[in-house]
Amino acid sequence: MLKTVFRSEDLPARERLAALDDIWVDSVHPMRVAGDTPQDLRATLRTLELAAVDVAEVTLSYCQVLRTPRLIRRADPELCSVIVPVAGTLVLGQAGRETRLDTRHLALYDSSQPFRIQLAADGGTARAVRAHIPRALLGVPLPSDGLGRLLARPLPARTGFGGLLAQFLADLTADTAGYRPHDLPRLGLLAQDLLTSVVAHHLDEDGPLPDGPRHRTLLLSIETFIRQHLGDPQLSPETVAAAHHVSTSYLHRLFRTRETTVAAWIRQQRLEHARRDLTDPALHGVPIHQIAARWGFKDHATFTRAFRSAYGAAPKDYRLGPAPGLFPAGRTAMA
């Protein structure tokens, strides 16, 4: 399913650079290619269309790929792009930054701003995989400066979401024999989700919180998710963050508006549900350890300590009825 659209060995040496330039300058994302010794160009370009996501593998000897203001005015599909070196090095320049990349890193760039990509920066040849996705399809709200603070920055390509995306793209361009044509849209959705996750993760690290309505909607969604999964002993800030495609640091910053921590809020909700069960006459015969397990507490001793700290009495005593001097039922379970 990978389509080879250019091979330098198919053309006379003197025609290679011009032929590759023609392919890129006439694309929906116009670029130019330039080199000091056109006759020495060695290049292979293979492409794979995954619905809205366009993937390409390029192998090039030393040259530069340029997108100029004039080319942007000519056509701008408003793409967010990622480039992942597979072998060799490249240099990406955009938004006033320039970064050298090897196989340890990937980088983002934007079709709406001029950029320069220098391939095989250390000589020889370089091989890279790049993917384009329309910015409108990114499943993450972009801040007012768009992708600006992420462009041409080296992002990890061996760990986290970056590692998953880099491996996914490398595997795709290495071998597509295991896929059928009707699998391509599904692969496109996977690529879209992974690229969105990379963008969201790195925007979350140091970006501002979403504006009012989005902030409240996301927080309410997270709180609903927590309430629905209180019985899962594996529920944690990490699992909550992963379910909502945000980083744990961003999740913690969201909960600062509640003047509590994520873990404390989960514990408070578990304790409050357990307290209600303990005072429910219909559940009087249910052992306390079962009530604790029902609300996600892994062991009875941990539950007892947390309950006593929150409500001033052991669960067994509280079930018999609050005694004078004990904390009232509405006391908040503190962090």
From TrEMBL:
Gene3D superfamilies: Homeodomain-like. This is Helix-turn-helix domain-containing protein. Pfam families: AraC_binding_2, HTH_18. It comes from the Bacteria. Coiled coil: none annotated. InterPro entries: AraC-bd_2 (IPR035418), AraC_XylS_family_regulators (IPR050204), Homeodomain-like_sf (IPR009057), HTH_AraC (IPR018060), HTH_AraC-typ_CS (IPR018062), Tscrpt_reg_AraC-type_HTH (IPR020449). Residues 220-321 form the HTH araC/xylS-type domain. Keywords: DNA-binding, Transcription, Transcription regulation. Signal peptide: none annotated.
